[in-house]
Write a structure and sequence with these properties.
The structure holds two protein chains of two kinds.
Chain A: E1 4-19, H1 28-47, E2 57-72, E3 76-80, H2 87-94, E4 102-108, E5 111-114, H3 127-137, H4 142-156, H5 171-183, E6 189-192, H6 201-218, E7 221-225, H7 229-235, E8 238-243, E9 246-252, H8 253-265, E10 271-277, E11 281-289, E12 303-311, E13 315-316, E14 318-326, E15 331-336, E16 348-349, E17 352-360, E18 368-378, E19 382-385, E20 391-395
Parallel strand pairs in A: 3-7, 3-8, 5-6, 6-7
Antiparallel strand pairs in A: 1-2, 1-4, 8-9, 10-11, 11-12, 12-17, 13-16, 14-15, 14-18, 18-19, 18-20
Helix pairs in contact in A: 3-4, 3-5, 4-5, 5-6
Chain B: E1 4-8, H1 16-22, H2 24-38, H3 47-67, H4 78-105, H5 107-112, H6 119-146, H7 157-181, H8 185-199, H9 206-212, H10 225-238, H11 246-271, H12 274-277
Helix pairs in contact in B: 2-6, 3-4, 3-6, 4-6, 4-7, 4-8, 4-10, 6-7, 7-10, 7-11, 10-11
The chains are: A alpha+beta, B mainly alpha.
């Protein structure tokens, strides 16, 4: 166990929220009178700097509650959780932007927090001036910035526009410049919020790489919040999963990520049950599952679709298959049962209950969301089921292709695996 | 490892002043930013710092000296008298305006980075100090033109500049902290400054105003901290011809001390919640 650099004990952060009470119907006179009364009381509260609560009902809200964890030196911790789980609040408390309500944090070393790209960038100032400004805001000394100036400019690739006010920059240039300053921070502890969501994929990769280098070569500690599971699994060694302000799971990053995606899956509609069809055929259930790990879908594991139903009468040319759609509604694949038989002869199917399944092999789909649309019909006659029982599922990449060299953002959907060979000369 | 930080509710009290020192570079750079940005995309830039007080001086000389027919003591041109009052007043008014809007104007910084928040209003008051230096240059030129020779008292001027700084910083801290929570103060400050302009002896002499008040409530005039400071400024520049009412100056001084104390207290108390409510 490396030296502990961050120790969090019983951490809690409470916010007070006011609600507008429903109240009943009120006359204008009552409204005015109450308005006058509240002006007086509010003014006196205001001058003395006390809390004026808007609305009639006050509610406590714990954004963080009873958090306990430790971070060792040089560790890269991924923090994950759904929106509102308290990730950003945790980072804000850690970087001293806001005070905790309860508990205690001991931090050894200089903390730099990157909660936003280009904090403090002033649109009227030039790129050069903003490097100094932003650097100082992030905690770099003037001498330090001077020393790294060329490196920062190189990294950003905007040297041509250094003396242009940044308000004239394209958004891409702006982000690059901002990132470059951030990438050259050298604190003992780096706290990074979801800032990598902006910027082009290549530059993101460059930044992740830089962060990783800094951490592994120089023993710096990184706390990293992201929704991008792939970025998390490639950068971080350990993880913390927050849910409703509380610690849900912590440990090795793979375990934490799979715990997270497991709980995420529950909400996805990957099962269908009901009755669809006509006098020829009826489908009663359909589901998608992953045989190796029934709790989620992962790029490196098989994914299986299973359809159950009954054929009610003999049908000549019964067709059953599916269309696979990507999340942006591209048709990725179309496949029919027995379509790949060598014989092209169409046969008559015998009635009875059936269960058909097909398998999407591991390393076929890249991470992302997909939709499977069942397609049932009679060849050249009619379509029986088309969109009555669609299934959706999301594939996560926690151990597959594109994890080592981040490629997720490039937008491809298939993990076609050509057989690489190499020779030594 | 260089140092250890403990974060706890109410803990920030202990290392606050030390932190303020540690973040001094940020203070320099924020002051530099405010200065730099000030006249960006204006055609004549810094000339505005010269034009504004000159134009105000001309209007005041006309209104008070010609229309109202107020007389300056012998040997002092009315316009120089006005200008000597305008110097500290504008410094105070600009500093206060900038400082009271400073936190809200730097909302992004406050919600994304830690640093002792006091740096922000302090940096914005410093910006108006630069304007004061420029107006001093104009003052020197005007005095040369009119052949007015400053008295030796001028060596004490820095004391009054410091007082003006303290007044504007103290009130600024108070207002900017309240402004974070209640944007009402955005509307209060301009009104205060406009009233203060006429309540302060900028266009006239405080002895004239004091004469109008009965002896017993004459001190009320000096509850305005700028009354004492402007008197002090004139005394430094013109010497014995314009002796200030020292009791009045003391009252102003007490008000300034109160402002600084209350400003720091309110600011410190509210500071912890800035990031949550801004």
């Amino acid at each position: 166990m490396p030296d502990t650099v961050i120790k969090v004990e019983n951490l809690g952060k409470r916010y007070i929220i006011g609600h507008q009470g429903k109240g009943g119907y009120r006359t204008f006179r009552e409204q005015v009178m109450q308005g006058v009364r509240s002006v007086f009381s509010k003014t006196s509260q205001m001058i003395s700097g006390q809390q004026v609560v808007e609305g009639d009902e006050v509610e406590e809200f714990w954004a963080l509650k009873d958090l306990n964890f430790e971070v060792g030196q040089g560790e890269r911790i991924g923090i994950i959780g759904r929106n509102g789980a308290g990730k950003s609040t945790l980072l804000k408390v850690l970087s001293r932007i806001t005070e905790p309500t309860t508990g205690r944090i001991a931090i050894r070393g200089r903390v730099a927090s990157l909660l936003e790209v280009g904090t403090g960038f002033h649109p009227e100032l030039t790129g050069r001036e903003n490097i100094f400004l932003n650097g100082a805001i992030m905690g770099m000394g003037r001498a330090e910035i001077k020393r790294k100036f060329d490196e920062i400019v190189d990294f950003s690739g905007v040297e041509k526009f250094l003396d242009t006010p940044v308000k004239r920059y394209s958004s891409g240039m702006y982000v690059r410049l901002a990132f470059s300053v951030a990438a050259h921070l050298e604190p003992e502890i780096l706290v990074v919020d979801e800032v990598l969501a902006v910027g082009d994929a290549e530059f993101q990769k460059k930044c992740l790489g830089k962060m990783k280098d800094v951490s592994s070569n120089e023993g710096r500690t990184v706390l990293f919040v992201s929704h991008n599971l792939m970025a998390l699994s490639s950068l971080c060694s350990k993880g913390i999963y927050l849910k409703n302000g509380q610690l849900r799971k912590q440990g090795m990053i793979e375990d934490v990520l799979s715990a997270y995606s497991k709980e995420g899956m529950e909400s996805h509609l990957s099962q269908w049950q009901g009755l669809a069809g006509d006098e020829h055929i009826q489908v009663t259930a359909a589901k998608i599952y992953s045989p190796a790990d029934p709790t989620g879908f992962f790029t490196h594991q098989d994914i299986v679709l299973e359809i159950e139903g009954e054929l009610l009468q003999p049908v000549y040319g019964m067709i059953m298959g599916f269309t696979l759609w990507s999340q942006y509604d591209y048709q990725l694949a179309y496949s029919l049962f027995d379509d790949t038989d060598p014989s092209t002869e169409i046969v008559t199917q015998v009635p009875g209950r059936f269960k058909k399944s097909f398998r999407i092999p591991a390393n076929t789909l890249a991470s992302g969301s997909y939709r499977i649309q069942l397609d049932v019909g009679i060849h050249n006659q009619k379509r029986i089921i088309n969109n009555e029982c669609d299934l959706e599922f999301t594939v996560e990449n926690i151990a597959g292709i594109g994890r080592k060299y981040l490629t997720d953002a490039k937008g491809f959907r298939s993990l076609f695996r050509p057989g690489w060979s190499s020779e030594k000369f | 490892m260089s140092f250890e930080v403990i974060i706890e509710s109410g803990r920030s009290e202990k290392n606050y002043w030390k932190d303020l020192w540690r973040y001094r570079e940020l203070f320099y750079i924020l002051s530099w930013r405010d200065l730099k940005v000030r006249y960006k995309q204006t055609a004549i830039g810094v000339i505005w710092s010269v034009l504004r007080p000159l134009l105000t001086m001309m209007i005041f000389t006309f209104v008070f000296g010609k229309v109202a027919g107020l007389k300056a003591p012998a040997g002092i041109p009315y316009s120089i008298l006005v200008f000597a009052g305008l110097l500290p007043w504008q410094f105070f008014a600009n500093g206060l305006t900038e400082a009271s809007n400073s936190l809200v104007g730097n909302e992004r910084l406050i919600s994304k980075v830690y640093f002792p928040r006091m740096i922000i209003p302090a940096a914005s008051v410093i910006t108006s100090l630069v304007d004061l230096l420029i107006t001093f240059g104009i003052m020197a030129v005007l005095m040369a033109i009119y052949g007015v020779i400053p008295s030796w008292n001028i060596l004490l001027l820095p004391v009054f500049i410091l007082l003006a700084f303290a007044a504007s910083f103290g009130a600024g801290l108070w207002l900017t902290a309240l402004n974070v929570k209640y944007r009402d103060f955005k509307y209060v400050v301009p009104v205060m400054i406009q009233l203060g302009f006429y309540l302060s002896p900028v266009g006239y002499l405080s002895s004239k105003a004091a004469e109008l008040l009965p002896e017993k409530i004459r001190f009320l005039f000096y509850l305005n901290p700028m009354a004492g400071i402007i008197d002090g400024f004139r005394w430094c520049i013109f010497g014995g011809t314009l002796p200030p009412d020292w009791n009045g100056v003391l009252i102003s001084l007490a008000v300034i001390i109160f402002l600084v104390f209350m400003g720091i207290r309110t600011f410190r108390r509210m500071e912890k919640s800035f990031a949550d409510i801004i």
